[in-house]
Design goal:
The protein has ten helices and 17 strands. It has about 375 residues and is of the alpha+beta class. It starts with a strand and ends in a 5-residue tail after the last helix.
Length: about 375
Amino acid sequence: MYPGLSQLDYIDDGVFAQEQLRIFRKLWIFAGLRTLLDKPDSFLTRQIGGVPVVVQNFDGAIKAFRNQCAHRQAPLQMEEYGCRRLVCRYHGWSYDNTGHVHGLPGEHRLYHYGDARREQLCLDEFAVRCIGNLLFVNLDADPLPIEQQFGPALLQSLADSSGHMCAQAIHCAMPAAYNWKLNFENVLDYNHVPFVHPQSFRPLMEKGALHELSVAPEADPAQEADLQDLSFLRETPLKLPRSAWHGSVDRFGDKDVYYNYFLYPNTNFISVGGYFFLIQQFDPVAPARTDVRFTLATARPLQRLAAMPAILWEHMKIEKRVLDEDRVILETLQRGLHAAGPVARHGAYEVQLHRVAMAYRQLMGRSQ
């Protein structure tokens, strides 16, 4: 048996605040799709580690800034996605691609800033990396190399697979009443599938696949967890039903498998047979509240697919069903957590969950 985290780690406000500082403001976090920023001035906004962030296309250069005007901290971009210049709606301040103030309406009449003071009027800039069609942002002033978090081979695989995604996608966010860590632990655990998803997900798995995934691995659970080891690709054979539109897209690979990229700390990137792609992200909002964000897209069409909206909507309904089945379990689990409760007793097959717990303690600055 290998101990999990304290129940306090899933319910305490102080722990949650430290996670925002030590994990979400230190690591590379998935921010959105590159295809959403295909035009000059196109943008997306996110909250990362409690910080409002805007990622914007400046004539082909993708930059990430704090989404708060340097004047009175009003949001520069208010929508989740859009296309407009980086201009504050409150008092009209505009910014260039370095984050410095470009224009101040009524500057000399109203503000009387000297040259030195005006130079200081700039936005905090954050590191951004594009991996295939996936954008990652790091808020740290001295960000660790992204290869240190995910590993070069995994990054190349992500670039190859996500590069097949169609630009047309469906996005949604659903609030859930549980801690974000429960969701990442859940996607790592295939052993729950036959019990929670017997009619939805389980029938797609090839015979014997779940047994192979859930047996005890050879990895030493006592080995110190490396950050790179927390993110990996797992390929699981699928009984993939054929659809008429499959022959009309540029499929990723040629295998009927469930490509599952676990991207620590809070993202799950999936491709089902290379025909369509799903991104699940578990955004922490509070100790017992998570926004589960979905993005779903097919592979790039080889020709115009008039049925694309219907295809996306149908697959989103399927994914929503699976999420709802998980949510019943996880929300009930969350409601029972309390400070004096026991820790989880991981079995041998849960070695990856145990290693995530070890790495979490390290990131949080604790001894094992």
